[in-house]
Specification:
The complex is a heterodimer of chains A (113) and B (195). With 113 residues, chain A is mostly helical. Chain A folds into two domains: 79 residues, no CATH class; 33 residues. Chain A has three helices and no strands. In chain A, helix 1 runs antiparallel to helix 2. Chain A is flat, with a radius of gyration of 19 Å. Chain B is mainly α and 195 residues long. Chain B has a single domain, classed as Cytochrome c oxidase, subunit III, four-helix bundle (Four Helix Bundle (Hemerythrin (Met), subunit A), Up-down Bundle). In chain B, 41% of the residues are buried. Classes of the chains: A mainly alpha (113), B mainly alpha (195). The interface between A and B is large, with 52 and 48 residues.
């Protein structure tokens, strides 16, 4: 996968630009990987033997897909770090919120605490 | 005073302000969709009247709509490369494919909605229906707005009003489109495959 470093000016700042850092072939390769991951997810849905492990496997595979899209298609792999932080802060807060509310309203009531 | 101002340029992070502002918007959108996904996960199990999720889901059909949105993400990065390399026909073709894939996604989802409604699931049927339609409906509105945005950019490219130096316009629209895609990846997993 051909990637290059972001260009920096004399003061050490980069401009958030990324001229041709990811090749067309890399984009197509990532697309194929995403399609394969989607197929695996759907296959797992139809395999009864994996019922007990379905949720963690699907969550991990989805997380991998999201990371690939964000890094390569949204260019955060080669873009300025500040964009990554702005996005990650929002995404992590959202993840905590979804997790906390699901545990509070769906998991804990099963234990009748 | 004027000399001092000339010696000290305006403070800057060294990044494009439009792009930073848009990434901030995307960060806030994460929280917005986080609330809707939370509401669905909390309320779907509280429905006292059917139909229930297991009565409705058509996984092969939803997989097809997911695949179209996934393919549109590849198409838009190819369109962006076309703009950067001044390949007008290439970028017009792939941006057109992106818009068509978005339209296909909305078409499949509209069919799915009509099927669910015929089965008795409406916005007011149950907490499951309310939270499902609000979550997926909000996502579809985002897709529709993205298609309008991409349509205007397609027209700009067609009229030769997007030279490579203006590729940031398509790049920012692409960030939005990819975000819509990753939100669907999460919805497809949590709502359809796990839920």
């Amino acid at each position: 996968m051909s990637t290059e470093a972001v260009a920096h000016d004399e003061s050490g700042h980069d401009h958030g630009d990324h001229d041709e850092h990811i090749s067309l072939g890399a984009y197509v390769f990532i697309g194929v990987v995403l399609a394969v991951l989607m197929s695996v997810k759907v296959a797992i849905y139809y395999i009864p033997a994996l019922d007990d492990f379905r949720t963690p496997i699907l969550v991990v595979l989805s997380a991998v897909k999201v990371v690939l899209v964000v890094l390569y298609y949204m260019h955060l792999k080669v873009d300025h770090r500040v964009f990554t932080w702005v996005f990650v802060i929002g995404a992590v807060l959202a993840g905590f919120m979804v997790g906390a509310l699901t545990i509070l309203y769906q998991v804990l009531p099963r234990f009748e605490l | 005073m004027a000399q001092a101002a000339a010696d000290h340029p305006p403070p800057s992070l060294g990044v494009d302000n439009w792009k930073l502002g848009f990434w901030t918007f995307i960060g806030s959108e994460c929280l917005f969709f986080g609330t809707l996904i939370s509401a669905y996960l909390v309320y779907k199990g509280n429905a006292v009247t059917g139909p229930y999720p297991e009565d409705l889901w058509n996984i092969p059909l939803t997989t097809l709509s997911t695949a179209t949105l996934l393919f549109s993400s590849l198409a838009i990065v190819l369109a962006l490369e076309g703009v950067k390399r001044s390949r007008k026909r290439f970028s017009l073709t792939w941006l057109g494919v992106t818009i068509l894939m978005g339209a296909s996604f909305l078409g499949i989802e509209a069919y799915e909605y009509s099927h669910f409604i015929s089965e008795g699931l409406t916005l007011t049927t149950s907490t499951f229906g309310s939270s499902y339609y609000v979550l997926t409906g909000t996502h579809k509105i985002h897709v529709a707005l993205g298609m309008i945005w991409l349509g205007t950019l397609w027209w700009m490219i067609y009229r030769d009003r997007m030279p490579p130096k203006d590729a940031l316009k398509l790049e920012i629209a692409g960030i939005y489109w990819h975000f819509v895609d990753i939100i669907w990846i999460i919805i497809f997993t949590l709502v359809y495959l796990i839920g």
